[in-house]
Task: inverse folding
């Protein structure tokens, strides 16, 4: 049995603002800036898109106006402040949704159907939003990504010219009329929740139920090339919400997701690390694949022990395909090349060794433990040595064997059915 020398859970989570998890939160200035920017984007796009709908002959008032939805890490509760600026930015996804009748009537004139292909309509959608947001960015002093910087699947506003290390992505969606009606009939709208208020919610996913989003069956996303592809955004949200429910410790699970993302951001300053969605799924699978050990650790409430356990197993997942079925076909969340996967695994092993040493090396002082953890997670780890407690005991829950993963011993491609 391995002897544990230190408890350094307090570095990651404690009741004060000095904890690592608290330092990952967005500061008030950033929250206010994002709240204001999101509001201005909505105020800019709504009349423009409504005007087009009216000119195209959309009769039903409820179909004329777009609906908006904060997506991605904001919904998962995993949004972190950047580890390195200006290279990294807070990423905000503001989905813009139109009813299908809106787009369909664009291709009509005087009651006659025009030969306007769906590809053309998708491009009109993008061009309209592009032009409106360009004007907004010029007015506000923001940068609009244009030309060669354009994103394939969204419009991007960079707030950094105004001293805010963040950007807003605006993906464009359409849904069948009956799906759109589900949102209109809902009593509570996410539209009314501002960015700062959303941050205070423990689990935005539950709010989605109240707003009718969970019931959506069909949503398609436009691309600049004029393609329409089925969107899995709702399936992904439901997948991780259900994982939180199954595991039974949603608050701790969100902390773990944020920790591994922060570790990634610290170690890949200019990008190139594993994606957030891959890390979240890998953490979820480790916990569910090692239920006996994981659930005892979760019950124990020691973030240092749980992280040690995760990094012991994380390399296997970052070296393999992590397959899900959220759309019509299975896909791997691991988009890394073989060289990138080996780089990720090496970094995981270094972190696993760090945890192992911090627990078992009797020569380390609390300050040295902090130094080692800081090497892996960055300067936001608190420097207060009182947060590292001496514990000379042999806990039954401690299992810190280091998984030295170079190549996968077997194909571990799994398939997760989308919600």
Result:
């Amino acid at each position: 049995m391995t002897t544990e020398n230190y408890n350094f859970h307090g570095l990651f989570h404690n009741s004060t603002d000095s904890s690592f998890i608290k330092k990952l939160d967005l500061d008030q200035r950033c929250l206010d800036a994002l709240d204001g920017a999101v509001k201005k984007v909505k105020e800019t796009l709504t009349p423009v898109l409504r005007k087009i709908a009216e000119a195209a002959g959309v009769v039903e008032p409820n179909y004329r106006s777009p609906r908006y939805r904060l997506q991605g890490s904001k919904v998962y509760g995993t949004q972190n402040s950047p580890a390195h600026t200006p290279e990294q930015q807070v990423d905000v996804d503001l989905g813009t949704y139109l009813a299908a009748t809106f787009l369909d009537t664009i291709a009509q004139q005087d009651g006659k159907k025009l030969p306007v292909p769906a590809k053309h309509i998708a491009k009109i959608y993008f061009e309209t939003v592009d032009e409106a947001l360009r004007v907004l960015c010029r007015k506000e002093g923001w940068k609009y990504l244009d030309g060669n910087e354009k994103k394939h699947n969204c419009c991007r506003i960079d707030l950094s010219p105004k001293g805010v290390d963040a950007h807003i992505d605006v993906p464009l969606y359409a849904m069948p009329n009956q799906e759109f009606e589900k949102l209109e009939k809902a009593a509570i709208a996410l539209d009314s929740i501002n960015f700062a208020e959303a941050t205070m919610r423990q689990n935005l996913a539950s709010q989605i139920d109240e707003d009718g989003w969970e019931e959506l069956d069909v949503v398609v996303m436009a691309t600049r090339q004029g393609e329409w592809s089925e969107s899995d955004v709702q399936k992904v949200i439901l997948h991780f919400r259900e994982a939180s429910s199954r595991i039974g410790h949603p608050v701790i699970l969100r902390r773990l997701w944020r920790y591994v993302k922060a570790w990634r951001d610290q170690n890949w300053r200019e990008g190139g690390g594993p994606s957030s969605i891959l890390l979240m799924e890998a953490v979820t699978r480790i916990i569910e694949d090692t239920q006996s050990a994981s659930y005892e650790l979760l019950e124990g409430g020691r973030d240092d022990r749980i992280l040690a356990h995760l990094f012991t197993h994380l390399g296997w997942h970052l070296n393999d395909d992590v397959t899900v079925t959220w759309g019509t076909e299975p896909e791997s969340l691991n988009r890394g090349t073989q060289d990138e996967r080996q780089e990720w695994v090496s970094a995981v092993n270094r972190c696993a060794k760090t945890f192992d040493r911090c627990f078992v090396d009797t020569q380390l002082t609390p300050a040295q433990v902090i130094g080692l953890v800081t090497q892996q997670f960055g300067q936001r780890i608190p420097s207060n040595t009182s947060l590292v407690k001496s514990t000379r005991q042999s806990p039954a829950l401690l299992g810190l064997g280091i998984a030295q993963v170079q190549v996968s011993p077997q194909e571990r491609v799994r398939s997760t059915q989308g919600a």
